């Protein structure tokens, strides 16, 4: 696949359509809000500009004439003059004469045919609020339609001892119909123009977005394909700075994990091959010895003396023990490597444990005339908190190696030192040491020293390391080839003070 291969048309169409739909929805919402606010703005402006129209009417018409006749009836002639003025000046208003309780006494309305459900009494609370604060936007009742609220102007008056109100609606029904018609016309034109402009903008923005997104996406696709085709080192450069940083970073993290898993699988496969080869090699020797001497002993045609039979049986017994030790080591390491062992931690004395291990090997040490020393106070317990059985195995393996490689009349020194809340265990021998080239591999499985005379599986120190790691500690080896000798050190938590 080419690095700059185009994205699918389906993706481009979907993205462009999404932009179009989004902009259209935003456009419709924007237009609706705009017209709503414009209508409210116009109404509030109209009411503010005509707030004193009721006062002007009272000053102009009621100065020389009263809205009521002497008999208390409404002065119809006066309001006919008002209607004549409305016809000549402003056909959008409606004038109502209200009594002190808000009942409609008379109205000057050009067309009563548009009335739906007329009301006889107008709510005076908006009128009082308006009279007290003409700057505020207030809606009042429409006497011709009980369900509608409209902008108005109002003023109170008193004539012949009677109180009342002039209540003027500033937007008649005819006026609202004209506004609605114009609104629909302008809305239709604006919507059409908006759709055209929106479509063009969405196409431009859509294609621009596709270009910007595809630029980063194609880089990701390129490296994904390289990884798919076997280039496991392929990574997206500057992933955090990419337009699709989350996707790029996730791919790099995933690729690292997969590469590590692949390397681990390869390591396991190599381990299996190495395991089979080492087991075949290390188990063949004792098995060959056992089989050879067993066949000799069972051969009827061969005459074997009693002394030779006893020697052959001892050799078979020794080879059997060697074979058993090799199998035990392999089983123990596999359990440790699979982390199937659970620690059984207890408090115990390192002094007593080392004493018991030295006693079990004293015969071997005496035969080789190796001196074993304990460079610490024999009266102190050196209590530690660990798995006693496994730590016994650690010290035993190291001590066994020390006895194996220390020459006759050599020396092995055990040291115990408490620093802070840790006990440092040291086992040092005067053997040939380990050269620099091999020091990094002594804890690896299957490693055996060049001077190893036992031809074992090389799992002793690997087992030691696994046990120490289970205790969340580290083990170190120090060896100077010039001065000879080798020293192993590891730490365990000291609990002497806590127990005391």
Automatic annotation (TrEMBL):
PROSITE patterns: HAMP, HIS_KIN. It is found in: Membrane. InterPro entries: BphY/WalK/GraS-like, HAMP_dom, HATPase_C_sf, HATPase_dom, His_kinase_dom, HisK_dim/P_dom, HisK_dim/P_sf, Sig_transdc_His_kin-like_C. Residues 278-496 form the Histidine kinase domain. Pfam families: HAMP (PF00672), HATPase_c (PF02518), HisKA (PF00512). Its main location: membrane. One of its GO terms (cellular component) is plasma membrane. One of its GO terms (molecular function) is phosphoprotein phosphatase activity. This is histidine kinase. It comes from Tenacibaculum jejuense.
